[in-house]
Amino acid sequence: MPLVIAIDGPAASGKGTLAKRLATHYGLPHLDTGLLYRAVAFALIQSGLSLEDRAAAARAAETLDAGSLTDTRLRDRAMGEAASQISAVPEVRAALLAWQRRFAADPAGAVLDGRDIGTVVCPAASVKLFITASSLERARRRHRELAGRGEAASLEGILADIEARDARDSSRSAAPLRMADDAVRLDTTELDAAAAFDEARAIIERARATIG
Ligand code: CDP
Ligand code: CDP
Questions:
Q1: Full-prediction pTM beyond 0.90?
Q2: Sequence-separated (6 or more) residues with CB below 8 Å from residue 145
Q3: Which of 8, 89, 95, 188 could pair with 62 in a Cys bridge, judged by C-beta atoms 3.0 to 4.6 Å apart?
Q4: What span, in angstroms and rounded, lies between the C-alpha atoms of 106 and 118?
Q5: How far apart are CA 5 and CA 3, in angstroms?
Q6: How far apart are CA 172 and CA 210, in angstroms?
């Protein structure tokens, strides 16, 4: 049976770091699905189009080029906000859903991280993890990360951004951020990346022992 690991959680909870480590450990392909939404927003901005132009956003999602996902500018702070705006458009989500499902259908299995992997993209995943951390800890992490990339920002500003984005992602009607009923919650507020990985691996091994 292919091992499909679904990882969801709010901004800077550590889901991407964990997904990467798990993918390496289990020898599986990894998709950071947030990058798809960031790339759609980036394509719109680059073309001089408004993020509120829903038809243009849908077209950008339908014609998304996999090659564009490696652009480091997708990681900019502003792109997280822009991605959150266009991700509420149902047609954008529908276009990216097919993409993500194809990725998850790899015969070996896959690790995907995002907001709706356990609830919408891979409802039959072998294991579902919902990663959380306090908003202050998440803001501290993002602050350190941005400082490392030379993007200066105040901790207060980042905290406000994170809380606004959580609220928007959780309250939208199309595939809101929500823990799947059969997901396991992992709070990483007090865990570094290595400790979170150990906990996640233990959860996955228990699940594998059950599903055989
Ligand atoms: O890394 P961070 O958690 O800050 O953001 P991200 O995972 O790159 O996602 C950026 C935005 O894309 C999120 O705020 C969501 O609005 C959207 N997104 C989504 O709607 N569904 C996903 N599966 C992944 C991201
Ligand atoms: O993907 P997501 O936005 O949920 O978060 P991430 O990109 O995995 O992690 C955000 C930042 O927090 C990165 O710089 C990680 O190295 C760091 N991190 C941490 O300090 N402690 C953890 N348990 C996980 C991640």
A1: yes
A2: 12
A3: 95
A4: 17
A5: 6
A6: 34
Q: In what order do the strands lie in the sheet with 127-132?
A: 30-32, 109-114, 3-8, 127-132, 184-187
The runs of H, that is alpha helices, within the chain are: 15-26, 33-46, 54-62, 77-86, 90-104, 135-148, 155-171, 193-211
Q: Print the domain residue range for 33.
A: 3-211
Tally the domains of the chain: 1
156 lines ligand 2 (CB under 6 A): no
Q: pLDDT tens-digit profile of 61-103?
A: 999 998 889 999 999 889 999 999 999 999 999 999 999 999 9
> Which CATH number goes with the domain that contains 110?
3.40.50.300
What spacing in Å lies between the alpha carbon of 50 and ligand 2's midpoint?
A: 30
Q: Is 114 in the pocket of ligand 2 (CB under 6 A)?
A: no
Residue-wise pLDDT for 25-50, tens only, equals: 999 999 999 999 999 999 999 999 99
